[in-house]
Write a structure and sequence with these properties.
Radius of gyration: 30 Å
Number of helices: 13
Structural class: mainly alpha
Order of helices and strands: HHHHHHHHHHHHH
Largest sheet: none
Shape: rod-shaped
Distance between the termini: 42 Å
Oligomer: single chain
Length: 373
């Protein structure tokens, strides 16, 4: 993670934002350690990369490498301070001896070093969680990935493992839900490619309704257009009841569900579901993958919102992020059902017509279908 502005830079840079609370905690801890180097042994798992400031990180790393002095000697001899400064300067050349005095003055109570260290670890956890959420968001929107669903789920697993590790480092406490009021989630992808895939699924499912019995993994909420989701419910209802399925019966079902409104005419609907291409499973997988990626991006956005609020404690971040990430579980399960290797032809029940799942031959979307948003 990139560190904040080094604290020893010139004071005339008035456009710099004021230092965050963790900056003062880092100064207090380093000041405590300069006053009482033996307290290094009490800091547990604190590491140099937990600091938000590069200069502070280099000073702490130098303290870890330079043997601590005897307490009696350190009271009157500044040799250890100079040795630490010399060890840190190759990586932070702007450090000056005067800044060490600033750190010492910034420490209210050296006895509170462990508490200062816990503050630093907490802020580091918040920054790292934000980094994991950012990676998930980037992965969910990366159109160049050869297998986007698998990559997104792997990144979600990495984030989940990070949360598991954090939960062992910070004790739970009451009031564990994040206090951030979340901004509205971004709208799903309703571009022409997504709408074309949904149109082709509806048309192909109308032509081959028997395939829908094996597509329980696709849900109405996976569609980007509510009208398409409602038509999918029409199709699945007809199949579930064992009624005949063709463009006319779907039209009749849609009429009973009140879909012939808002500019959708019977002719429009008939044209929409009358040009099948490929197999329903092929288009269904594409729609489900798009829904999986969109939901992963929503999860990442929510976790990022949690981490942007410094009022949230580590346990609040852990609890809120776990709840957000749990929303991917149902989609993951449905995706695994959709992409599971089918049984061999020797053990499968013969069907009248098995369409290729690999997709249709190249062709454009049905020109007669109108788009209604």
């Amino acid at each position: 993670m990139p560190h904040t502005t080094d604290p020893y830079e010139d004071d005339d840079l008035d456009d710099l934002p004021p230092p965050q609370a963790v900056h003062h905690a880092e100064q207090a801890l380093l000041g405590a350690l300069f006053l009482a180097p033996h307290r290094l042994a009490d800091l547990g798992g604190l590491e140099a990369d937990h600091f938000s400031s590069h200069a502070h990180a280099m000073l702490f790393a130098a303290m870890r490498t330079v043997p601590p002095p005897a307490p009696e000697t350190h009271r009157t001899d500044p040799t250890w301070l100079n040795t630490v400064l010399d060890a840190a300067r190759p990586e932070a050349p702007g450090l000056a001896a005067s800044y060490l005095h600033t750190l010492i003055e910034a420490c209210p109570w050296p006895q509170h070093a462990v508490t200062y260290a816990r503050m630093i670890r907490s802020d580091h956890a918040r920054r790292m969680l934000g980094m994991h959420a950012e990676r998930l968001a980037q992965t969910a929107t990366d159109a160049t990935l050869p297998n986007p669903a698998a990559t997104v789920l792997a990144q979600a697993d990495t984030l989940g493992q990070f949360l598991e590790d954090l939960s062992g480092q910070f004790a739970p406490h009451p009031g564990s839900l994040p206090r951030r009021v979340l901004r509205e989630a971004p709208a799903g992808d309703s571009g022409e490619e997504a709408l074309d895939e949904e149109r082709l699924l509806l048309a192909t499912a109308t032509a081959h309704p028997a395939e829908l019995r094996d597509m329980r993994w696709l849900m109405p909420e996976d569609f980007t257009l509510p009208q398409h989701a409602a038509l999918w419910q029409c199709l699945t209802s007809l199949v579930h009841r064992g009624d005949p399925v063709d463009p006319v019966t779907v039209l009749w079902e849609a009429q009973h569900r009140g879909l012939l409104a808002d500019g959708l005419t019977p002719s429009d609907l008939m044209a929409l579901i009358s040009t099948p291409v490929g197999s329903p499973e092929h288009w269904g997988e594409k729609i489900l993958q798009r829904a999986l990626l969109a939901h992963a991006h929503t999860v990442a956005t929510r976790i990022t919102a949690y981490t942007e609020d410094p009022a949230n404690t580590p346990h609040q971040l852990i609890t809120g992020s776990r709840r957000a990430l749990a929303g991917l579980t149902a989609l993951r399960t449905r995706w695994q059902c959709a992409t599971a290797t089918p049984p061999s032809t020797a053990t499968r029940t013969p069907r009248a017509s098995v369409l290729p799942r690999a997709g249709p031959p190249p062709r454009t979307a049905p020109p007669a279908a109108r788009s209604f948003r």
